[in-house]
Structures are given as C-alpha cells and as structure tokens.
Amino acid sequence: MQKFLSYERGLEKFHPLENVVVYDDFDRGFNGWLDLTPNFVYDGFTQQPSRIDLGSWGPAMISNAPMRLAASSGSMEGTYSLKLSTRGPAAPYEEQPAPGSMSVAIKRLTGVEPTHDLIQIEAWYSYTVKQDRPGIGESDVRAIGFFFDIQDEEHRWQPTVRYVSSANGAPVHRWQLGKVRDGVTRSDWCFGLDEGWEAPGIDVIWSGRRYSDGSGDGFEWIDGGEQRLVFNESPDKLNWMYFRLLVDVKRREYVELQSMDRTFDLRGISPTLAPCYEGITNLINPVFWVETDSDRAVELYLDSVVYSTGRSAERKENASC
Prior knowledge:
Layout: E1 19-25, E2 33-35, E3 60-63, E4 81-85, E5 102-107, E6 118-129, E7 141-151, E8 156-157, E9 160-167, E10 170-178, H1 186-189, E11 219-226, E12 241-248, E13 253-259, E14 262-265, E15 273-274, E16 283-292, E17 298-310, H2 313-320
Antiparallel strand pairs: 1-17, 2-5, 3-4, 4-17, 5-16, 6-12, 6-17, 7-8, 7-9, 7-16, 8-15, 9-10, 10-11, 12-13, 13-14
C-alpha cells in the first residue's frame, strides 16, 4: 500500500524545518496562546517580587481587526488573527516599563525531539495603532518582538529579537537581539531590587536599564539591522509581513533572523545564560510582544504561526555515518 504525506495549503507560505510541532492558524481559535501573567503564589495571591506590574499587560484576543473608518480588515488568510493590544501610556524610554504599556502572548510547550538541534519560529504579522486621533501613528510604536523561553538541564536562556520602531517619539527602525552587557548586576537588571525575580538575561523585554538611543542593558544591535518595516499610510491599512528566527539549542546560539526579504546572519552569538529555575526543565515557550511609545494603544496582529524543529547539516551527516 502506498502512503502519501500531505500538508495544509496554509503551510506553503512558511519554510519549516523537518518536524512541524505546531501550525497555529488563528481562524481556528487561540491554539494555546494566552496572556503572559505573573506567578500569583505569595500571600494574598500576590505576584513574585518585581518593580514591574506584570499583571497589567494588555490582553491577547482573537480579532477580525475592526477599524474605526474601514470596517474589519480580517486576517491575511481568513477572518481572525491573534491580536495583542497595549492598554496604558508609556513611560519615557529610559525608565522602567509603565503598567499596561506592553502586551505579551505566550504558548507553553516542552522539548519534543532530542536528536534535533535547531528550533524555528515563523509568523505572518502586522502592527498598527488605535485609530483614535489624526495622524499615521508610526512614532507611537516603541517596539515589537519575539523570544523563546528555554530551560535545559544546565541553564535557562531566552534568545530574543526586538524591532525598535521609536524611542521617545524619535524614529529608530532597527533590529536588536537579547544579550546582556558585561557587568550588569541583578540590582541593575531589576531596577534596584536586589532580590528581584529576574536573573540577568531573563525577561529582557521589561528588565535592565534603557538608554535614549533605543539600546539597553539586555540588548545588542544586530549588524546591518536597520530596516524600515511596512506601516502604510493610515492605521487602518494592515500589510502582512513574514518573520522567522532560527536557534541552535545544542550550541545555545542564534543562527539567523529573517524579516520580510532580508536575512541576518547571527551565527556565533549566544544569548545570556542564567541559572536554572525550579520546576521548568525542558521548557520551550515561544513569546510575542508589542510596546507603546506614547499614550496611544498599539496593536500587533498574528495571522498564523509555525514552530518547527530539525537537524543541522552537521548533525544529519553524523546520523548517516
């Protein structure tokens, strides 16, 4: 009997590795994506020690992208996307993130294939601002980004990429990756809290000191990372863009970032490695987020997401010997 392997047509717009772990088309619902919330395990169900109000982030929701003047945009292919929307004004860039100034969505997974040394996330996405005032609004978006939250037998680490659109209203339009600067202490990382929950390198999206040019203690600019994403001429016009991040989990290194038609070689760069946290060994959580740079709500739309794993050319060659 002959056997045939077929894929959903929607996968044609992606470039997955050997093993597709999840293919999330948000026309089918949340698919396990949810708001990132703190650990409410202390007296009175309070969260872990932090200078940041982690319970304030804007919600993730299934949306048909309704617009003030142009009805509903729908998604890239279908009606619904996963929408992340902020719900509070931003603090100045150099200060710690203000309550509600970010929206963060996470999918909680674990490792599945020990012979695979590569993991990859892909997404088709768009971003805009709430159409509540005149103007294009591109300078109201501070950043969009993605990271894997990984814990193996020895370290917790979070390979992260972030596109800085604006800092205090000034255009930046540049990619950076997560890597902590030398000499950063836990107090520096946690805004003066010596016993903060976050170790340097963990939760870089809200931790560490920030600087007016868009840099920070936890970020390193990607060489040649200047890029103008498509924001279009009005907040109700969504252009869908392709994103891909490839990571080597055996070497604990970045491999490459692809944004639309550009690919950035990140090989040889390692994220910061932190000590293991209790109870989460073998965790691999993909996380998307968006940040506002003003008092205006900003929105990130995910049409669909693919997470896949595979073997590097070196590992395939060794396996065939």
